């Protein structure tokens, strides 16, 4: 079967790959990297049998391994915790690469986009397939930068387990909390890897305590470090009471020894490890009744006699139940601790069949898959990443898209290896595949083998729903689960170099939107300009860069602007009549409505109808009214920003027979605009949650600067030698903050931002904003 495999060489410039992210605003190496001349980067991979060249490693086992031997995992963490470096070491030790990639050198496998290599960050989530000790591992390296949170969300929802990477000197950081919450939302079991144990200031105890305190998780210490900081030389395996030491003269970390701890040679270390193992046994016994019975029955007198296999099985059960998280440690950059991490992935994280998906029985073994990522390749068109939950996918297979209600045909089936792909004859449940030929499938679409199969599944779901009413709603949501796309907070205009290039720009933006649903593109009705809406400065900068590199368009960006919102402070009534005669037909509508503020935050207007209106209202007329209301609320009277937190009550509606729905919408929309103009208006601005890590020396300078930016400080914590400032700052005041912070602190501080909520501006600031925009209240 393997002899039929074909190799695809994909140019780094040609394929955009999985969109995921990771960046630290204060990485000095980013600017240093830009000074280096960009040269083609060559990597050595082991070769497939019968293939010319040495670009790709053989998939040792058969293409479709047993489902119990599959692990779908993601690597997630805060910016710069070492996710990509850990991935590179995993690929090297599993035999997929012959040389170690380095983020600083710009030659990593999973960071292959030009922007990623220049900046030393992960923007897209790269999927990699490899084998480890008889297990097939599908691994996704995800970003840590808040601008690309959607990339993490998109990939976590199709994974079975995750490795959370922490910087041992910092513990839990801002973005760690975000990705941890995302993993909780999708009920993903995870293990923790405390990376950078060799870094000055690394503290195993502090990092474990921060997991316990900030993440409210129960850490199970499966390893202890041998030394910290520069003294770090290996780890102790608590479960097996063994010492793992890496050869200091080894360049790649493959050479390490595993020795049992003995009373004669390591009495102190043995005593510490035995205490840690006993504490671990007690901790697991508290969480797992089956293990508690075993311990209290056979091994209550002496925990040392408890076999490691029994303890590992119990740890696996509590990990899958998500009542605790195993903790391991090491240093990916110094090549220490990665092999035991890979072992832990296969031992403690679940196989696809161990995840409980309620919708699977409805398909009775027929095809059920979820498209979780779409990217665009100039040669092959849309490439769709799919997680197969049941059934099998083959090339030339016709599939049915439930969301799009259409049938498409898969032309080719590939196994993803970052930006290189191997063509395969089939793929079964539990795997992640890359399909070619699907023109209409989008992110979040559910795929079945045929329309009849989907209808049969729906009938079974309905039957089961009769028995379990409440659970069925959740299961149905899972069946057609889409990715929740956050609202953009930045926007700017984008112009092509000439009018003749406008169609090329529209095509480029259409392709980029399919890859990245968090990018919104709209047309300004007044100026006719194209407007980009994104998640942050970096996000828009990357999009601009990709249009230039991948589509050859030198576009011009207007100044970045903040996505404000508007609301009203009091209830206002308005009446409007629209009377038009088109040809021989008269269109007459009279509407009376009330616009009022609502206390609960609501992006969409809440629509209410008076009893006299709703009685005989045709469905088409109701849709026309709601379209008119929604379109009117897209542009507020102050800044032309969307209006939120309002309710609209329709009190009376008189429609002349034969009036078109378009005229109804136009009349309602005009009436809403009239009411909004009469009301007391309020601008809402996006408020960002900010976390700054700074040394004591620069603390006062940073606090003074934040005070000038209308920031409110929530708390200041101490993390070893650093101070952690947590607070809220308006987004408008934080643009370009990374440069200012670097200047203030001589490049020593870092910060993380996350959208908190929209908050009302005070009158003085609102007046200044409107004056700057040339508007009056």
Structure, described:
It is a single chain. Helix content is 30%, strand content 28%. It has 21 helices and 36 strands. Strand 34 and strand 35 form a beta hairpin.
Structural category is: alpha+beta
End-to-end separation in angstroms reads: 72 Å
Assign an overall shape: globular
How large is the count of helical segments?
21
Beta-strand content bin: 25-35%
Number of strands: 36
Low-confidence stretches: 1-62, 104-125, 467-482
What topology, given as strand order, has the largest sheet?
1-19-18-21-14-13-22-16-17
Major sheet summary line: 9 strands, antiparallel
Mean pLDDT: 78
Question: How would you briefly describe this protein structure?
Answer:
GO terms for molecular function: GTP binding; GTPase activity. InterPro entries: EFG2, EFG_II, EFG_III, EFG_III/V, EFG_V, EFG_V-like, EFTu-like_2, G_TR_CS. The protein is α+β, with helices and mostly antiparallel strands.
């Amino acid at each position: 079967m393997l002899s039929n495999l074909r190799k695809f060489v994909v140019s780094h410039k040609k394929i955009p790959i999985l969109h995921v992210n990771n960046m630290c605003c204060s990485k000095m190496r980013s600017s240093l990297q830009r000074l280096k001349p960009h040269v083609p980067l060559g990597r050595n991979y082991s070769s497939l049998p019968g293939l010319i060249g040495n670009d790709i490693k053989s998939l040792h086992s058969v293409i479709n391994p047993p489902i119990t031997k599959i692990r779908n995992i993601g690597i997630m963490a805060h910016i710069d915790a070492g996710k990509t470096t850990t991935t590179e070491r995993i690929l090297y030790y599993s035999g997929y690469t012959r040389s170690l990639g380095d983020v600083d050198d710009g030659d990593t496998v999973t960071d292959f986009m030009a922007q990623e290599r220049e900046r030393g960050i992960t923007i897209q989530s790269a999927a990699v397939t490899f084998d480890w000790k008889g297990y097939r591992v599908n691994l996704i390296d995800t970003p840590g930068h808040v601008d690309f949170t959607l990339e993490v969300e998109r990939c976590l929802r199709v994974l079975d387990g995750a490795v959370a990477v922490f910087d041992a000197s910092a513990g839990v950081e801002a973005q760690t909390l975000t990705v941890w919450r995302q993993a909780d939302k999708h009920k993903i079991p995870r293990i923790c890897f405390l990376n950078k144990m060799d870094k000055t200031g690394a503290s195993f105890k502090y990092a474990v305590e921060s997991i316990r305190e900030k993440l409210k998780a129960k850490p199970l210490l499966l390893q202890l470090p041998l030394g910290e900081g520069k003294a770090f030389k290996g780890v102790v395996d608590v479960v097996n009471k063994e010492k793992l030491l890496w050869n200091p003269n080894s360049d790649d970390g493959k050479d390490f020894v595993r020795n049992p701890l003995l009373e004669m040679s390591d009495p102190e270390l043995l005593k510490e490890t035995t205490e840690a193992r006993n504490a671990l046994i007690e901790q697991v016994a508290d969480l797992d009744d089956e293990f508690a019975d075993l311990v209290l029955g056979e091994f209550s007198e002496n925990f040392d006699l408890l076999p490691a296999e029994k303890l590992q099985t119990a740890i696996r059960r509590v990990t899958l139940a998500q009542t605790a998280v195993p903790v391991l440690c090491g240093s990916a950059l110094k090549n220490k601790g990665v092999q035991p991490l890979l072992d832990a992935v296969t031992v403690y994280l679940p196989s696809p069949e161990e995840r409980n998906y309620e919708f699977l029985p409805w398909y009775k073994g027929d095809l059920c898959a979820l498209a979780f990522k779409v990217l665009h390749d100039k040669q092959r068109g849309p490439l769709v990443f799919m997680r197969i939950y049941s059934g099998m996918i083959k090339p030339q297979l016709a599939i049915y898209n439930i969301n799009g209600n259409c049938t498409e045909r898969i032309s080719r089936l590939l196994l993803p290896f970052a930006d290189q792909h191997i063509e395969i004859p089939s793929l079964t449940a539990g795997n992640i595949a890359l399909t070619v030929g699907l023109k209409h499938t989008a992110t979040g679409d559910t795929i079945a083998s045929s329309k009849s199969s989907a209808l049969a599944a729906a009938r079974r779901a309905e039957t089961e729903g009769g028995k379990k009413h409440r659970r069925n709603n959740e299961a149905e949501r899972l069946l057609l689960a889409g990715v929740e796309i956050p609202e953009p907070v930045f926007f700017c205009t984008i112009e092509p170099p000439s009018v003749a290039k406008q169609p090329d720009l529209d095509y480029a933006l259409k392709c980029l939107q399919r890859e990245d649903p968090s990018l919104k593109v709209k047309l300004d009705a007044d100026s006719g300009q194209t407007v980009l809406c994104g998640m942050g400065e970096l996000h828009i900068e990357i999009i601009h860069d990709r249009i230039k590199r991948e589509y050859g368009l030198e576009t011009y960006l207007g100044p970045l602007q903040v996505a404000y919102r508007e609301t009203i402070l009091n209830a206002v009534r308005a009446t409007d009549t629209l009377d038009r005669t088109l040809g021989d037909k008269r269109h007459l509508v009279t509407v009376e409505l009330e616009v009022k503020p609502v206390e609960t935050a609501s992006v969409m207007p809440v629509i209410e109808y008076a009893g006299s209106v709703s009685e005989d209202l045709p469905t088409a007329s109701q849709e026309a009214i709601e379209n008119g209301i929604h379109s009117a609320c897209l542009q507020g009277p102050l800044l032309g920003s969307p209006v939120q937190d309002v309710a609209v009550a329709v009190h009376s509606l008189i429609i002349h027979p034969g009036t078109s729905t378009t005229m109804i919408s136009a009349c309602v929309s005009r009436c809403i605009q009239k009411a909004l103009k009469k009301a007391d208006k309020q601008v809402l601005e996006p408020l960002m949650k900010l976390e700054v890590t700074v040394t004591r020396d620069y603390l006062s300078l940073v606090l003074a600067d934040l005070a000038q930016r209308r920031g409110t400080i929530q708390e200041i914590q101490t993390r070893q030698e650093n101070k952690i400032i947590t607070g809220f700052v308006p987004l408008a005041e934080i643009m370009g903050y990374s440069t200012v912070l670097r200047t203030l602190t001589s490049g020593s501080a870092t910060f993380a931002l996350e959208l908190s909520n929209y908050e009302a501006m005070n009158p003085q600031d609102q007046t200044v904003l409107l004056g700057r925009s040339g508007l009056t209240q």
